[in-house]
Design a protein that fits this description.
- With about 200 residues, the protein is of the alpha+beta class.
- The chain folds into two domains: about 120 residues, 2-Layer Sandwich (Alpha-Beta Plaits); about 50 residues, no CATH class.
- Helix content is about 35%, strand content about 15%.
- β2 and β3 form a beta hairpin.
- α1 runs antiparallel to α2 and α3 crosses α4.
- The radius of gyration is 17 Å and the shape is globular.
């Protein structure tokens, strides 16, 4: 039985569908991105390929074909994201066992819920976006489209792993908690995170 999910959701432009290390995408929707970086690089790898050796130049070329600059959240934006995550957690009744907000992506371990991991991540993204807009910190604050909305500061989907044992949950929690330190940042403690052991 699934006890929790380890999810990773990324900022716009961080992990492209044709990333040389692989992606979860089957299709590159943007013609410009396809020309710059090639076809989608679908992988079924269950372990992270973030540190895999790859062609940095090909990745840089593809990022140059994006409609908007890739998003890198600042410290103040990360604090604002945390407010949105806290709001979504309260609204949805989610149990968050670990959370790391990094400049280009977010790691979370979320307890089992009636909603799918994808729906919960969508809720976190939309609540965080509302907070960014309210505080005037949205990365595309001045880029309003014809429909009155801003471009999303998030990639569309998320990466997820089902955790079906206490050992798996504990390992994922430790991984998420250690993630900022691996990137030479301070450990993070958020008020909306609770102990997974109860």
């Amino acid at each position: 039985m699934v006890l929790a999910h380890h999810v990773i959701f990324t900022a716009y432009g961080f992990w492209l569908p044709n990333d040389p290390r692989g992606s979860w995408s089957d299709f590159v929707a943007s013609w410009e991105l396809l020309l710059a970086g090639g076809k989608a690089t679908k992988t079924d790898e269950r372990r992270s390929v973030a540190w895999a050796a790859h062609d940095w130049e090909a990745r840089r070329r593809a990022k140059g074909a994006l409609k908007f600059p890739p998003v890198t959240f600042s410290g103040s934006q990360a604090l604002t994201l945390s407010k949105g995550f806290a709001e979504a957690s309260s609204e949805g009744g989610y149990s968050i066992f670990a959370c790391s907000i990094l400049p280009e992506h977010v790691h979370m371990v979320i307890g089992r819920h009636e909603r799918s991991a994808e729906r919960m991540v969508g809720h976190f993204k939309s609540a965080a976006t509302r907070c960014l807009v309210t505080e005037g910190l949205h990365p595309f604050q001045d880029e309003v489209k014809r429909n009155g909305r801003r471009p999303s500061s998030w990639a569309e989907r998320c990466w997820k792993v089902f955790l079906d044992s206490g050992e798996d949950v504990g390992r994922a929690v430790r991984y998420v908690e250690e993630n900022p330190v691996k990137e030479r940042k301070r450990a993070q403690r958020w008020s909306f995170v609770r102990d997974w052991r109860g």
